[in-house]
Amino acid sequence: MDHASTGRDNYFETYSFEEIWQRGGKDIAMRFWYRPLHAMFDALKSAGFQIDIVSEPQPDPRARTLFPQAYQSLTTKPRFLFFSVVKA
Fold first, then answer.
1. Residue 19: which of 32, 34, 2, 3 has the closest Cα?
2. For each of the chain's 88 residues, which pLDDT tens digit applies?
3. Which of 49, 60, 58, 42 is nearest to 84 (CA)?
4. 33/25 Cα distance (integer angstroms)
5. Rounded CA gap, 54 and 35, in Å?
6. What is the C-alpha to C-alpha distance for residues 26 and 57, in angstroms, rounded to an integer?
């Protein structure tokens, strides 16, 4: 999610926000947290972890035909960041 869509314009701000996703005919409230990259690294380090891998995953190619708008958005503005960490 980019800052414009959440109404935030300060990269260094930490905040959470919710979106309503519709799945299987039900509305599901999804909560997301935004933190600047240094805050995520600092939190992991202070919890005793060492960063092994940082990944910005791409959507499954099958999503291109199933969800063309979401696919385009996720392949140009990633919203997920995965960390693989080990206990230091």
1. 32
2. 455 455 578 889 999 999 999 999 999 999 988 899 999 999 999 999 999 999 999 999 999 999 999 999 999 988 889 999 999 8
3. 49
4. 25
5. 15
6. 27
Spell 56-75 as b/e; 16+ CB within 10 A means b.
eeebeeeeeeeeeeebebbe
CB under 8 Å to 78, separation ≥6 — which residues? 56, 57, 58
Yes or no: say if 18 and 32 are a contact pair by the CB < 8 Å rule. Answer: yes
CA–CA distances in Å: residue 56 to residues 30, 40, 47: 20, 14, 22
Q: How many CB atoms lie within 10 A of CB 26?
A: 7
